[in-house]
Amino acid sequence: RHYSVAAQSQLRELLGQQLSAIKEAGTFKAERIITSSQSTQITVQGSEQRILNFCANNYLGLANNPEIIAYSQQLLERYGAGLSSVRFICGTQDIHKQLEQKIAQFHGREDTILYASCFDANAGIFEAILTPEDAVFSDELNHASIIDGIRLCKAKKQRYKHRDLADLEQQLRSSDARLKLIATDGVFSMDGNIAPLARIVELAKKYNSLVFVDECHATGFFGATGRGTEEYDQVMGQVDIINSTLGKALGGASGGYTTGPAELISFLRQKSRPYLFSNTLPPAVVGVGLKVMDMLLSSSELSQRVQSNTQRFREAMTKAGFTIAGENHPICPVMLGDARLASNFADQMLTRGIYVIGFSYPVVPQGKARIRVQISAAHTEEEIDRAVQAFIEVGRGLKVIN
Ligand code: PLP
């Protein structure tokens, strides 16, 4: 006992020193406590005032949609709080199968497997399907969960430079692997930029490779009818494997999935560890997914609205003299450079009732701090304009723009 007390104070001291260093570097991430539902207007602890929210992944504004909540409540009552089981032992209900089918229908795929999160979907896929005879080619800026998933597999791991097709081609050409798999985010969430998917698909055909795309920041709202990056880049149906989340545009509750060829999905049900060794998605969460899928299968109005809001914000901010990274995507990173400037800027925006977050190292590279604004279909034009006006006032005060 004496020994473990000593070990624990050693741990506290080691971590305490590192926490102080993080704070000194200005990169400590504090959590702001929200006291309302997720929405374009929220309240936060310590204030009664409603603030305008520009930092959720609530792209379609469905996170507190009354129709979705009512349906989710019905499933909660009828199917219970949860399954207390993994899927294959006694955790699969008819609603889980229905949701898998609807997601497959939405993407035009053969089948879908649900996970507790897209992090799990990414953690489970590479290790399940790739062996030491295979190779995976991964964009260097892929999401952490793809990187972790690839780390778990035994295939040859090759990283290509961010969206660099020449580098990717050179690596594909010199590979003699059995299966080749190119893995990329469809949309990169820190920069709001897009994978060159049509050209990746072309390279994949030329070198007999599979294509895997993480569509967390695209499914439901990106592309003309919200089918994601493959629709945006006009290669619908040509990506082999799509992983995505139910925790962002699709109602914002939680859950992830892989959708693709029937044999792949069947195989993942046999081999994918986060699926085999983790609890089933709860019925209320499945209800959110089902209702959202019904809405998106019958109309693409919301995705059109988020696109026009995005255009309005990007145009006004660029005209005001800000540098907005990315392309046509509701992730609008306002580039500032310095970490302290970004955090100071965000604080001053909050005093004007606008909630935005500064991102700095290690989430983005050193010297590339920014404020990431995320636009929602639920923002009104007046709300977008208010945010732009606040950016202009704070930007002038901090000498970011003239
Ligand atoms: N992939 C990308 C690109 C993401 O942005 C995220 C969420 O942060 C994930 C995967 C993980 O998704 P989930 O929240 O469903 O675990």
TrEMBL record:
GO cellular component: mitochondrion
Matches recorded under PROSITE patterns: AA_TRANSFER_CLASS_2
Statement: the UniProt record of this protein carries the keyword Nucleotide-binding: no
PANTHER family: 2-AMINO-3-KETOBUTYRATE COENZYME A LIGASE, MITOCHONDRIAL (PTHR13693:SF102), CLASS II AMINOTRANSFERASE/8-AMINO-7-OXONONANOATE SYNTHASE (PTHR13693)
Source organism of this protein record: Drosophila rubida
Lineage: Eukaryota, Metazoa, Ecdysozoa, Arthropoda, Hexapoda
Class of enzymatic activity (EC top level): transferase
Keywords: Acyltransferase, Pyridoxal phosphate, Transferase
Family recorded in the similarity comment: Belongs to the class-II pyridoxal-phosphate-dependent aminotransferase family.
UniProt GO BP: L-threonine catabolic process
Name of protein: 2-amino-3-ketobutyrate coenzyme A ligase, mitochondrial
EC number per UniProt: 2.3.1.29
Limits of the Aminotransferase class I/classII large domain: 51-391
